[in-house]
From TrEMBL:
The keyword Phosphoprotein does not apply. The keyword Metal-binding applies. This is Peptidase. GO terms for molecular function: metal ion binding; metalloendopeptidase activity. Keywords: Hydrolase, Metal-binding, Metalloprotease, Protease, Signal, Zinc. Binds 1 zinc ion per subunit. Residues 1-18 form the signal peptide. Transmembrane segments: none annotated. Residues 59-246 form the Peptidase M48 domain. Its cofactor is Zn(2+).
Length: 268
């Protein structure tokens, strides 16, 4: 029963998915078009701005916009052509995000953690990396595939064991999928965005070594967190070690960018 269900689920999902390659060379499966995700991203961003207080102009808004523009300028042409938009939300939590379609949000609380423009570029570069690598589409596609698979297995179990069988598969299978597929997959995306963002900031003329300092500041500012195996994000210390290991190899890229005139002057 399980084998037949998985084969059927896989056939349904794969028929609807397109295969792409991420900026780091990783194979991805997408069930949705870029235009669909871009439209949803724009709608979500507009809704957030309507419900949360944002800064209208001012130094901090210009600061964020300057950093975003410097990073976006290093993306391939098709990504530069998106309607990039920034907003600064009045919120003390140190957080930032980017949505499909080129929508970037930064909380005012981030300025207490990102101490200079290079550290802010590390945060925003990471978030732009999610957009550039189509992570929202990928994750939505994976969740859709998981739901489809569980629905098929639940139907087959119900045919053999009744409603009890269906419930066991959908409830127990949902937990197993979350622990074994969706959470680790999200950590893969986070690690990939770290790599993309750190390279992007070096190409834009921001010091890639500052990504390490940024995450040290984030750790210092955060309270306790769940173990890595229960989290959608890599363990902070593992993340810092990876950023530290990558930074020296990006220094030549950073120096070349500065010599080529990429010298952002966005703020503190």
């Amino acid at each position: 029963m399980k084998r037949a269900g998985l084969v059927l689920a896989a056939a349904v999902v794969l028929a609807a998915c397109a295969t792409t390659t991420s900026p780091t060379g990783r194979t991805q499966y997408m069930a949705y078009s870029d235009s669909q995700l871009n439209q949803m991203g724009a709608q979500a961003f507009a809704e957030m701005k309507s419900k949360q207080k944002t800064l209208s102009g001012g130094q901090q808004s210009q600061y964020v916009q300057c950093v975003v523009q410097a990073l976006v300028a290093q993306l391939p042409a098709e990504w530069r052509q998106l309607q990039w938009e920034t907003a600064v939300f009045v919120d003390d939590s140190p957080n930032a995000f980017a949505l499909p379609g080129g929508k970037v949000g930064v909380n005012t609380g981030m300025f207490t953690v990102a101490k200079n423009q290079d550290q802010l570029a590390a945060v925003i570069g990471h978030e732009i990396g999610h957009v550039y690598a189509r992570h929202t589409n990928e994750r939505a596609s994976r969740q859709s595939a998981t739901s489809t698979g569980l629905a098929v297995l639940g139907a087959l179990a119900g045919a053999r064991y009744g409603q009890t069988g269906t419930d066991l598969v959908t409830q127990g299978g949902g937990m197993a999928a979350q622990m074994g597929v969706l959470l680790p997959f999200s950590r893969t995306q986070e690690t990939e965005s770290d790599e993309i963002g750190q390279r992007l900031m070096a190409q834009a003329g921001f010091d890639p070594a500052q990504a390490v300092d940024l995450w040290k500041n984030m750790v210092a500012a955060s309270a306790g967190r769940a173990p890595e195996w229960l989290s959608t994000h890599p363990d902070p210390q593992n993340r810092i070690r990876a950023l530290e290991a990558r930074a020296p190899s990006l220094q030549p890229l950073y120096q070349a960018a500065r010599q080529a005139g990429h010298t952002p002057r966005c703020g503190t």
